[in-house]
Write a structure and sequence with these properties.
Blueprint: E1 3-6, E2 9-12, E3 17-23, E4 32-38, E5 45-51, E6 56-58, E7 66-71, E8 76-81, E9 90-98, E10 101-104, E11 108-113
Parallel strand pairs: 2-11
Antiparallel strand pairs: 1-3, 3-8, 4-5, 4-9, 5-6, 7-8, 9-10, 9-11
Length: 114
């Protein structure tokens, strides 16, 4: 399984970005899909996850601002990020768990300026 994440960039605080993650296989049966991020000097953390049944969970730090979704027909997962803060600056990685194995995309950099 290969994942390609894109959509990062430079945005001012308060702005929005939408990240996309294209998966190389059908995602309808994938149990868990998630976005993680890693800020400079910090450990990677889970930002949002979505199940095959479209249940979603979010880190407390992004609740109410970020929305995870997926389009099974396009084999794509999204992360809509609104009201961005400087502390959201990080490399964002998409990840899926398929047949008990995890697969990661290459990451896309999000930089939020004050």
């Amino acid at each position: 399984v290969q994942l390609q994440a894109y959509g990062g960039g430079l945005v001012q605080a308060g702005g929005s970005l939408r990240l996309s993650c294209v998966v190389s296989r059908s995602i309808g049966s994938i149990n868990v899909m998630a976005w993680h991020r890693q800020a400079p000097g910090k450990q990677r953390e889970m930002v949002a996850m979505i199940s095959s049944g479209d249940r979603s969970n979010y880190a407390d730090s992004v609740k109410g601002r970020f929305t995870i979704s997926k389009d099974n027909a396009r084999n794509t997962m999204y992360l809509q990020m609104n009201s961005l803060k400087v502390e959201d600056t990080a490399i964002y990685y998409c990840m899926v768990v398929d047949l008990l194995r995890s697969f990661w995309g290459q990451g896309t950099l999000v930089t939020v300026s004050s």
